[in-house]
Write a structure and sequence with these properties.
- This protein has 3 domains: 151 residues, Jelly Rolls (Sandwich); 193 residues, Sandwich (Jelly Rolls), CATH 2.60.120; 58 residues.
- The chain contains 8 helices and 24 strands.
- The strands form 5 sheets. Strands 1, 3, 6, 7, 8, 9 and 11 form a 7-stranded antiparallel sheet that branches. Strands 14, 16, 19, 20, 21, 22 and 24 form a 7-stranded antiparallel sheet that branches.
- A hairpin with a 2-residue loop joins strand 12 and strand 13.
- Helix 5 packs antiparallel against helix 6 and helix 5 packs across helix 7.
- It is globular, with a radius of gyration of 27 Å.
- The chain starts with 6 loop residues before the first helix and ends with a helix.
Length: 466
């Protein structure tokens, strides 16, 4: 006889089966979008370019393209300083506000092209582009495929450069998908994930001064997406700085070092001795050796940097290198956890490669002061959502393995019902057993799993009766 299944368990089973089914098949996705040609753009005015209400969540913007903003009436051609805005899920103020250059991943040093400029003569080396972003014309041609997720609604708007005194003309293209989850590389993000911007306004730093480029509060989980840095100084000494990441409440002596120098973080070397480059992983979009000025980006789509309970992303001007590494020192060796805990730094015993030992001779202290501005893109969601999704994923995988086992006729109905109850109740032993085996069970593995599952359930039933 089949064992009775309680109403709460039946309800929970229905919920989990719906969640399994919510991995929406390709046929459920639906494209939406719009384009505007020769749009009128009055000065000092936000013009709505698109609105959409999500009918089958999650929904996501997949493509934004702004061919250009043309001035009229003798206004300066400063399209680079035009803005686009994203109002997510009914926001009164946009959580995402970007200049057209920032949308393309470029630094604010870059200017609009002129008729005398093209190709290699452009200050950013454009035209250029990757799968994520680019700038394909001296008049604009900026685009982004960075996903902007939403659950209820999206509204986008555009604004002319602040220098505009007359109406401008603009072009705009946007597309997206309904019933489509956001993926970061090979990671599927929770439906609650939203794109966030962390902006550091131009900030001057003394030598060895630290600054947070981005931070997320405790209770927030997330992933870095893209880091853009604009920097200038009196020398390239600031490029000695190592990028530090403090996830999940890590202390000052517990940073994860994301680089062995600034240009290293942006996948360059030796103070960018080959000049500008742009790849899907990183790029240098502005580089002036004579004024020690640059703009660079690093993506973290194929190189995930994650946190579960808040974070800080910290950079500095120049560097001090010593020992195992901490908030004030970039490491010059690897230390095991035990060695790091017992290590007591001594300036007499350890070599120092601080600000006075750079990759090149500086010749003066003109580079001691550096100016940074930064834009950090991240996906973020409440930590509770992350924990729920982890538990849900475990239950879904366990139920699939259980279904596979039943299909091979290795379980009777009573054992199947009992195992289902324990999966939905989160019983660790049954979950561990079912998750330890792949879904592609061999005949022998299926027999072993069924036997161990029966043993575990019998043990828990005996314990319950005591």
């Amino acid at each position: 006889m089949m064992s009775p299944v309680s109403v709460p368990v039946v309800t929970a089973l229905s919920t989990v089966l719906c969640l399994v089914a919510s991995a929406v098949p390709l046929g459920q996705q639906k494209t939406f979008g719009h384009a505007i040609k020769n749009g009128n753009l009055p000065p000092n005015t936000d013009v709505t370019t698109f609105e959409h209400r999500c009918t089958v969540p999650p929904c996501v913007i997949t493509h934004v393209n702004v061919p250009s903003i043309y001035p009229k009436g003798g206004d300066a051609w400063n399209w680079t300083q035009g803005h686009v805005f994203f109002f997510v899920d009914g926001e009164k103020q946009p959580s995402i506000s970007l200049t057209l250059l920032e949308l393309a991943g470029e630094g604010h040093w870059n200017l609009a092209g002129t008729n005398a400029q093209s190709g290699d003569h452009m200050p950013d080396g454009s035209p250029w582009g990757t799968s994520l972003m680019g700038r394909t014309a001296k008049s604009g041609g900026v685009y982004s495929t960075l996903r902007v997720p939403f659950g209820k609604s999206i509204r986008t708007a555009i604004r002319a450069p602040a220098s505009a005194t007359q109406d401008s003309v603009f072009w705009f293209v946007i597309r997206g998908l309904e019933a489509h989850v956001v993926r970061l590389g090979d990671l599927e993000l929770p439906a609650a994930a939203r794109l966030r911007l962390h902006r550091l306004s131009p900030t001057k730093l003394e030598k060895l001064q630290l600054v947070d480029l981005a931070s997320s509060p405790k209770g927030t989980s997330g992933a870095l997406v893209r880091v853009q840095l604009d920097a200038r100084s009196g020398s390239f000494g600031f490029l000695e700085a190592c990028m530090r990441f403090f996830p999940d409440g890590a202390g000052e002596d517990e940073p994860i070092f994301l680089s062995s120098g600034a240009e290293d973080y942006f996948l360059g070397a030796s103070y960018f001795d080959e000049g500008m480059f742009k790849t899907s992983q990183a790029g240098l979009t502005y580089f002036n050796r004579s004024s020690y000025t640059l703009a660079a980006y690093k993506t973290h789509i194929e190189d995930p940097v994650l946190w579960r309970d808040g974070m800080r992303l910290r950079f500095r001007n120049c560097e001090d290198t010593e020992g195992c590494g901490d908030v004030n020192h970039c490491p010059n060796k690897f230390c095991s956890a035990a060695a790091s805990e017992s290590s007591a730094r001594s300036t007499e015993e350890l070599p120092r490669a601080g600000a006075q030992h750079l990759k090149r001779e500086r010749g003066s202290d003109a580079g001691d002061l550096a100016e940074y501005s930064a834009l950090v893109f991240s996906y973020e969601w409440p930590r509770e959502t992350s924990n729920f999704d982890d538990r849900r994923a475990m239950q879904v995988s366990a139920l699939r393995n259980l279904g596979n086992l039943v299909s091979k006729a290795k379980l009777n109905e009573a054992l199947e019902d009992a195992a289902t109850d324990r999966i939905l109740e989160g019983e660790e032993g049954v979950l561990s057993l079912l998750l330890a085996f792949s879904q592609d069970l061999s005949e022998e593995a299926a027999k072993r799993l069924a036997r161990q599952l029966a043993r575990r359930i019998q043990q828990t039933e005996r314990l319950t009766q005591i």
